[in-house]
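DATA SHEET
Item: assembly model
Revision: 1
Owner: S.N.
Input lines:
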Amino acid sequence: MTARRTWRRTRLAAIAMPIAAMAVGCVNASGGSDPLNVDRHNPSAVVQSAVQTLFSWQPGVDDSPVDAFDRARPLMSVSLAAQELSLTTADAGMQWQQWASDRTIITAEAEILPDEHPIDTPDTVRRVVAVTLTIANPAPAPQDAIHFTMWVTAVNTPDGWRVDSVQV
Amino acid sequence: MTQRPAPRRARPTPSAGVARMPLSVRRLVVLIAAVSLLPPTTSWAAPPESGQCPTRATPIRGSWTQTSGFGPREDPPGFHPGIDMADPVGTEIDAAFDGTVRYAGAAQGYGNWVVIDSPGPQGTFASLYGHMYDNGLFVKPGEQVKAGQRIASVGSNGFSTGPHLHFGLYPGGRLDDASAVDPSPLLNGAQRKTDSDVAVLVSQISSCPTLQVLPGTATARPVTPPDYIPWLQKAGSLCPGIDAALLAAQVETESAFRVDAVSPAGAKGPAQFMDGTWPSWSKPDDGKPPPPSPFSIPNALMAQGRFMCALYRQATDAIAKGTVSGDPVGLALAGYNAGFGAVQKYGGIPPYSDTVRYVPDIQSRRAKYAADPQLVSSTSSGTSTTPNATAAMEVPSDAAAVDFAKHFLGRPWVWGGGDLNGPTNGGFDSSGLARYAVFKGTNGKLTLPRTVANQWTVGREIPRDKVQAGDLVFTGWSQAGPAHVAIAIDTTHVIASSMGQGVTISDIPVDAKARRVA
C-alpha cells in the first residue's frame, strides 16, 4: 500500500451523495456509485464502490438483484465477474415484488472500517466493510435500514484494483 | 395484522443440492438470493421414504474438546475432512449410527480406522473413526453394529499431535475429501448453512423421525436444545404472559426444533412462519445480512416472541372488552395457529381441528420446559415467568465472558472468523471472539456488533487503571478508530484472538483504551 492511502469513513447517505461522487465516482440512477468512474488505483475506493453498487437496488426497474451484480462486474476480478447468477424476477420472491410494487429504492452505504485485516501486499488488500441498506419505502415498514458486515478482498490487476471475493 | 393459515404443522423436507462454486461466490449468491428465500421449485424436494432413517448416538458419550474443525486449515495445511474430538487415550468410541463395519484396521494417516456403512434416507453413507491404536479396535469388517455400541478407544496413532478421535461423515460412502461433509451440526445441534452441502445432509438425515440430534457433552440429553436456550430466554422476556417455556413448547410443536423445517403449506423454520407474516415480525436478530432468514434460530425465535406478545396483548384487550373469553395465553396460541381474526370470529378458540389440538398440546408440553433448569435458571431472578422490562435489560457484570473466551485458547486467528455459536472457518478474529464470549457470558442478553469499530460504540469508556475482568480493551488506534479488541481477564491481562498468534493471554498494551459493556 502507498503511504497516501488514508482510512476513509465516508458515510454515503443519500444526502451526501454529491460528496460521495467526488470521493469514489459518480452516482447512478440506482443509487450506487458509478463503477466506471472509480479511481482503480485506490483499492479502498474500489471496494467501497463495488459493495455499494452490489447492494443498491431499484426493484421495479431492476428485474432482480442480478442487475446490481451486473453493474458491479466492472469492479470484479475475472473469476468473480465470470460467475453467472441466474435469478429471475419470479425467483427474487415476495419481498422483491413487494418492493417493486411500492417503488421502494434500496441504497447501500459502504463504510470501510479500521478493523484488523491481513497485512496489505502489492497484490492483495483486505478490508472489513460495514454496509447499511437504506430502504426508502413510501409505506410504513418494520425496518428502514439494514446493517451487516462484509469481509472483502481486492486484488491488483493490470487494469487496477478489482474485488476478488466477498464474505458475509 | 397478517394471519397465518392453518394447518401449519411442520413436516420438514430436505433441500436439493447447491451447485458447487467457490465458497465466497456461493455465499454471495446466497446473500443476493436471500432477498426472497430461494425459490421453492429448486430448494425443496420430497421427504425421504420411511424405513430408511438411521438411528444415531454420538461417537463419544462423554465430554470432548473440538481441536480442529471441518474444512480448510492452516496447521497442518490442507483440507480437514472431519472434526477432531480430543479426549484421553482409552476413551470409549461408539458407533454413531447403526450399520455394517466396512473397514477396521490400519489406514495411512489414521494409524487405524473404522469405517461403518449405514443406510440413510438418500442411500448409504459412511462414518469414519480414526487414530486408534492396535489394541483400541473392538469390531471387525462385516460386523453389524448398533448406534451407541462401543467400537474402539481413542488413541493418537498415525498423523496425530495428541489423543483424539477424527470423526468423518461421507454421504454416498465414497471416502474422498470431495464427498466429506461437516459432521459438527449433528454433534452440536443442527445449524442451517444454506450455502453448503452440509445443509443437504443434515436436512436429509434430520427428516427422519427416529433421529435425535444429541449434544456432544457428557450430560444427559437436555430437554431444551442448547442453541435455542439463549434465544428462548430473550424472546421469553419480551412481555408478561409469554415466557421461555411456552415458546419452547410451541417450537417443539411447530417444528420439533428443526431449523430447516418447511411445512407443505410453506411455513418455514423453527417457528414455522408463512412468507406473508414473516416480514411483519422479523428483524435480523442474528446479525446476518438482509433480509432476515426464517431458518435462523435468533430470527425465528425473536419473531415468534414479538408475534406472540402482540397476540397476547390483543387477547387481553379483547377479554377486557368482553368480545372473547378464555385464557389469554391459550387465545394467543390459537391466534398464532389460525389468525386472531378467527379467535375474534368465534369469541374464543376457533373450532378448527388443528387449532383445538394445537393449544392444549403446547400447554401440556410447557411443563417439561418450565422444569428445565438450563432454560429457566437465568430467567428466574424475581418473577420467573414474567420478567419485567427493566430486569431484561440488566446484564451481569461478572467475567463469565472470560471463561468462554479461555475455552478457545490456542485457536487460530481467522479474518472474519467467529459467530455467536463459536469459531467459523476454524477460528476467530478479535471482534468475533469478543462478540461470542460476551454473548455467551451474558446468557444471550448482550449481542455486541460484529466489528471492532462498532464494538467501541457500546457501553462507556473507563480509565485504564479501573479495568476489571470482562471489560473490553481496544488497541491498534488510528484516526478512524481501533483495529483490535481484547477482553480483560484481570486488571493487567487480556485474552484476545490476534493475527499471527491466535487466541492468547497477554499484558494490557500501553495504547489501550477500555470500555465497560456489561
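QC remark: The first helix of chain B runs from residue 23 to 33.
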